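Throughout our pipeline, every protein is held as a single compact record rather than as scattered files. Such a record has a labelled line for the sequence and another for the backbone structure tokens. This encoding replaces a full spatial description with a residue-level series of whole-number codes. For reference, a complete record is included directly beneath this paragraph.
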Amino acid sequence: MAPKELSELNFQLQELVDRGFVRPSVSPWGAPVLFVKKKDGTLRMCIDYRDLNKVTIKNKKLHFSTAFHPQTDGQSERTIQVLEDLLRLCVLDFSGSWEDHIPLIEFAYNNSFQSSIGMAPYEGQVSKLSPRYVGPFEILERIGKAAYKLMLSDSMPDVHNVFHVSTLRKWVSDSGKKVSADEVEIQENLTYKEEPELILAYDVRKLRSKQIPMVKVQWKHRTAREATWEKESDMRRLYPYLF
């Protein structure tokens, strides 16, 4: 994203936060943002869900209607209904404001099986994650004012070696945080299978009718701050050597 667009994005997001339409999130999931120029020359912020739809919506054609009802095949309405029911149950059982229960709802929903993707969203996160950054790579030359040409690894022959500055980060020498392209098996879509390295902590998530043992997992090539909470039963089944 160009610096001008990035500045506009920050401005529009802050405006949405100030109006109470959105709020900051620490969710590990996200979608690309792009701008569409309107007739008056201003920019309209749009969220690109095309890649997400390729995974979650199979053999379906979306029937769009209005901005308030973006999909009339029932899929969006059904998801919203499930989330509303979960919020209502949490408020009735635990009282308090519904906003206080959003983290619990997010965990419960993302930990449940989704027929559209054939697994729970958390399971998909464990089995296939994209590395934030791979490198470091030597800078060969500067291209224009906002791009650089890099000397990539031989294991990445299909990756174009010119990158916009917004996709790059300065490398500060720290062997504990280095992710080498030669150490991981990078797929054609630039993803790789994440491997756990250590169990950092144990906890129990209490839901309405059951308790779920959880473990905090340190993943290879990632820092302790990037550790994630996973179901203990899944980790014991997939990675018994950790216990």
User: Anything to note?
Assistant: Residues 138-167 form one domain.
